Amino acid sequence: MENKDFEAVKAQALEQLLKGESLFGEGGALAPLLKEVLDAALEAEMDQHLDEEQRLNGNKRNGHKSKTVKTSHGPIELKTPQDRNSKFEPQLIKKRQTILAESLEPRILGMYGLGMSYRDISKHVDEMYGMTLSPSVLTEITDRIMPKVTEWRNRPLEEVYPIIWLDAMHYKVHQDHRVVKKAVYNIMAISKTGHKEILGVYLSESEGANFWLQVLTDLHERGLKDMLIVCTDNLSGFSKAIQSMYPKAEVQKCLVHQIRNTLKYTASKDQKEVVKDMKKIYKADTKELGQKALEDMCKKWQTKYPKVTESWTRNWDEL
b/e string for 244-279 if b means 16 or more Cβ within 10 A? Predict the structure, then answer.
């Protein structure tokens, strides 16, 4: 590229950048550069394909074939090299592939995971990238990446993790023309090397100890033999489900969940005073002082909020 051409491209790129326009899309300043890179990559693949064995068998180049490929930056017309024996199978952009899906897959999968319909996704992609994608194309893209997700979900785990968090996230989605609640079971761990790791993500209609037992069984089958400390919420039967699979694990209840559950059953006018009494329990310097603060709290609030005092007493007894 000559210097004057470079200056012209730079000026055009700056102007489009300030306007918020795509530099690689149709009419973009850098669109020719993207095309050159993809064309060069295809040529390099052909050079690698036509090795000595292929040439000895009489195979050689046989011109080019034009193909328009849709990308997240807009359509690009490429020249795919051809060989005489029609044995060339490009990997960057495969035969009959008309969409450079790598740039779109993460976005489409993310929108699909949020519960958006194919029609909503197609409309969003059209508005953002000027590309009209049919439901069949979207299905092809999601189907292509789902095996990778399945492989990740079933990967082998380490035998021991020092700390594991088990919790469920609740959300609402549109299903069969109505809004329903779902629960996503998340398992995060700290490995023996001190790194965070997501062990698994599971989907269910609601959160319950029975389903958590299925999750723990799956983790065990994937190689997880023991966990030292397990952090959970105050879900009924959760601790028993954990200890049925990992009897040596120490179950640590989440204090944040305990406080939230307490305030849920406490009238707003009493919450400030209840919180003050709770702090005396979990901020106590010794277990004895914590026990005394718990007894004082129960005497004060047991008649008015029996569920609150029962919950704190039960969890204290499990320490």
Answer: ebbeebebebeeeebeebbbeebeeeeeeebeebbe
Beta bridge partners of 230: 164, 251
**Helix, strand, or coil here: 47?**
helix
Asked whether 161 and 227 are in contact (CB, 8 A), the reply is yes
- Give the dihedral sign, CA 42/47/48/54: positive
Q: CB–CB of 59/84 below 8 Å?
A: yes
- The answer to whether the beta carbons of residues 186 and 169 sit under 8 Å apart is yes
Q: Are strands 160-175 and 196-204 parallel, antiparallel or unpaired?
A: unpaired
Question: Rounded CA gap, 314 and 235, in Å?
Answer: 12
Tally of CB atoms within 10 A around 139: 12
State pLDDT tens for residues 240-294.
889 899 999 998 888 888 898 899 999 999 999 999 999 999 999 998 999 999 9
Nearest alpha carbon to residue 98 among 142, 66, 54: 66
- What is the predicted pLDDT for the residue at 2? 45
Phi, psi of 275 (to 5 degrees): -60, -40
pLDDT per position as a tens digit, 200-230: 888 887 778 888 999 999 999 999 999 999 9
Instruction: Calculate the CA dihedral of residues 120, 123, 129, 132 and round it to 10 degrees.
Output: 120
pLDDT tens digits, 67-115: 888 765 667 788 888 998 888 888 767 787 776 655 555 566 556 555 5
